[in-house]
Amino acid sequence: MREYAVVLLAAALVTFLATPVVRVAAVRFRVMAEVRDRDVHVIPTPRGGGVAMYLGVAAGVLVASQLPSLQRSFEFSTQTIAVLVAGGLICLLGVLDDRFGLDALTKLTGQIAAAGVMVLLGVQLAFLFLPVADIGTLSLGPDVGVPATILLTVFTVNALNFIDGLDGLAAGVSAIAALAFFAYSYHLGLVGYDDVASAPALITAVLAGACLGFLPHNFSPARIFMGDSGSMLVGLMLSAAAVSATGQTDSQTLGSAANLLPLTLPLLVPFAVLFIPFIDLVMAVVRRTRRGQSPFSPDKLHLHHRLLSIGHSHRRAVLIMYFWAALLSFGAVALSITGGTVEVLVIIGALLVVGVVVVLSPRARRAAIAAREAELAALKERSRAAHPASRVKGGGPAGPTVPVAAPATPGPLPTGQTAGVRR
Predict the structure, then answer these.
(1) Please, are residues 294 and 288 in contact by the beta-carbon 8 Å criterion?
(2) Do residues 188 and 194 lie in contact, with contact meaning Cβ atoms separated by under 8 Å?
(3) Binding region for Mg(2+)
(4) Which of 182, 221, 229, 215 minimizes the C-alpha distance to 25?
């Protein structure tokens, strides 16, 4: 564990120090995010922070290769190197998009190419457990494993890209997801289902460090955005961790066939960890397709935009997304590690209730304020209607007002008299 802490800190430190340099370069070469209708930032902001994150990832991998206890992850597997190479390719693709604005088809082609390189170098789904109809564990050959891995990678890359809409959101959610994956992978090594010095644990440790190192520069108000170079890099690394941690282990070795929970969790953990990006992507695709638009056409109806529309502030919306990402990802990992004890279920249930209350609190507060304002307006109207002057003007017990006749001939009033109105 200490070695992983060193690797995480190395990645975080290099990313933190490299980000200001990347920011200056982004301003110099005009790699800027201009203000658009769907954006929440109000001034042009540099992007391309994924370059600094990739430098942090590379530094973390380099440090790990020099630590004796982690060298085994390089000796028995090429997955870490595969992720480093493919990550460099997809980060370069993101830089080109950040600078020149590539079309959707070009980006999709580049994402498939980077995922294909990762697969060729050793990251591939080998097993898939389906706990339905007594199917059990499927051994996936290259004909199924390769396209499934590429599809999962492209899906995750675009999911992370979709949630990158608020300052610090993608970096924070990615750090939480990476730490959850690390806890799951490290636990598999501790209980003997994998080596503690494993590729998924190392990949998620360096990714978490890079995200945490970038976050101080990216949290609201952001001084630089990670851009597509960062979101696509994070998506590729998270998909690689999911494939490495769950797709190359026979799930039926993790528990008894009589207990369904340990068998299904290796399949559910990746989706729980990445639930927030996945659900946002699915909702966006369905929403745009029903309107007859392209799934890649932008709008302001993502989950984080909805939180802003409810009434949450920018930072509060980001923190709420952090909360839900942590609850779902670490809740799934806790269930996997403990087997779903009553205490864990109660804690998760209580936190779910807290999360719902926090999300809906601005709407409830606004409804209460609106109800109170309506009540005060009605009270004022009743008071105005009950006032004697109002009754006189509108007719009532005092009778209607009597019009005053104008004098027949104008002229000065007699001495000692004053003008008046007889009611």
Answers:
(1) yes
(2) yes
(3) 161, 228
(4) 229
Domain extent listing, the chain: 2-258
pLDDT tens for the chain, residues 1 to 423: 889 999 999 999 999 999 999 999 999 998 887 776 655 555 788 989 999 999 999 999 999 999 988 888 787 778 899 999 999 999 999 999 989 988 889 999 999 999 999 999 988 887 766 655 566 667 777 888 899 899 989 988 888 887 777 788 889 988 998 998 898 888 877 766 666 778 888 999 999 999 999 999 998 788 899 989 999 999 999 889 888 876 555 555 554 333 444 444 445 556 665 666 667 777 777 777 777 776 666 666 666 667 777 777 778 888 888 888 888 888 888 887 777 678 888 998 899 888 888 877 766 566 656 666 776 677 677 667 765 655 554 444 444 544 544 445 445 544 444 444 334
Neighbours of 264 (CB within 10 A): 19
Between the CA of residue 234 and those of 163, 177, 244, what are the distances in Å? 12, 10, 15
Tell me, yes or no, if the pTM score tops 0.90.
no
**HSE (side-chain half, CA atoms, 13 Å) at 282:** 7
Query: Residue ranges for the binding site?
Result: 161, 228
